[in-house]
Write a structure and sequence with these properties.
single chain, 173 residues, alpha+beta, Immunoglobulin-like, 2 domains, five-stranded mixed β-sheet, 37% strand
């Protein structure tokens, strides 16, 4: 009974932290400790159905936090236009007749970080724009004239605090 009460209290506390966006190393450590304790019960044949349910919950929660920590953008697309802070299309290639292309990125759980769009063609940086991320869900975009790059591949890297987290490419025809 004491274990169940402790787990319930811990779950409530962890949920409160998660709702506030406080995803600290201590929080991750608590999740891992809970997983280890329940795994030990399971290995000893003492785990209840509730323990197994909580093991599944904690494992999924920790996996999700680790995926978020990697910093991959939630969405990253090339588009011909942004309307109401959303891309109107998702380009894989584009004609120079489009003249300009925007690169849209939706970032999650990076409040307080600096995100950067670094545009390059043939390995040469052609444009760079920094964004201060102001919320847990932050949508940003940068726009570049593409007419000089006919027949080339445009690459945009997304950096967070100077570290490349992903890149997208666009063929200009």
């Amino acid at each position: 009974m004491k274990t169940l009460l402790t787990l319930t209290l811990l779950l409530f506390t962890m949920s409160a932290f998660a709702q506030q966006g406080i995803l600290t190393e201590a929080y991750k450590s608590e999740l891992q400790q809970n997983i280890d304790e329940i795994e030990a019960l399971k290995d000893g044949g003492l785990a209840t159905e509730r323990d197994l349910f909580m093991l599944d919950y904690y494992t999924k929660k920790l996996r999700g936090l680790r995926e978020e920590a990697v910093g991959a953008p939630h969405r990253a697309v090339f588009t011909t236009q942004i309307q109401n802070k959303e891309p109107i299309d998702n380009l894989q290639s584009v004609s120079v007749a489009a003249r300009q292309v925007s690169f849209f990125t939706e970032l999650r759980n990076l409040t307080g970080k600096v995100a950067t769009h670094r545009w390059s063609v043939g390995g040469i940086e052609i444009y760079k724009k920094d964004f201060s991320v102001g919320a847990n869900r932050w949508r940003v975009w940068s726009t570049k004239t593409i007419t000089p790059y006919s027949g080339k591949m445009v690459v945009v890297q997304i950096l967070v605090d100077g570290k490349v987290i992903t890149e997208e490419t666009l063929q200009v025809n």
